[in-house]
Amino acid sequence: MKRFASANWQGTGKEGKGTLTSQSTVLNSTQYSYSSRFEEGVGTNPEELVAAAHAGCFTMKLSFVISGAGFTPGNIDTKCTITLENGAITSSHLVVTASVPGLDAAKFAEMAADAKANCPISKLLNTEITMEATLV
Fold first, then answer.
1. Which of 19, 45, 54, 87 is the most buried (most CB within 10 A)?
2. Residue 96: which of 71, 113, 121, 117 has the closest Cα?
3. What's the CATH code of the domain at 57?
4. What are the DSSP E strand ranges found in the chain?
5. What Gene Ontology biological process does one annotation of this record name (predicted)?
6. What ranges in 73-132 are assigned the alpha helix state H?
7. Which contiguous run of DSSP H or E holds residue 46?
8. Span 44-56, pLDDT tens digits
9. What is the pTM of this model?
10. Do 51 and 91 share a structural domain?
11. Do 100 and 56 lie in a common domain?
């Protein structure tokens, strides 16, 4: 399987503007800029998209791990925070809360650690990945 997205940028790094389009067109000429990346401007940015990718990948992997152990996840919520410092992504922090009937906290922690280590986006990222996992 291969997936793609494309970017277009016009102008200088600080004053220019760009658009991002994904294969599925969920992103379709979606704007991004210096302001949306480094300030609070309107639009998306690469770090936000990496955070979405990591949260989504991890959450789906955790669902597979839980299901593979014979449990049925009721709900899994994950927030991912990407930190960009000095021009490099220095960390990805996952905060996950899940409800899984019949699953105890210790086993859930093991499963969350497995998903964190083995989701494809975790494997892709060359950075520190931390996590807080709560079973409710």
1. 54
2. 113
3. 3.30.300.20
4. 5-10, 17-22, 30-33, 75-85, 88-99, 128-135
5. response to oxidative stress
6. 105-118, 120-124
7. helix 46-68
8. 999 999 999 999 9
9. 0.93
10. yes
11. yes
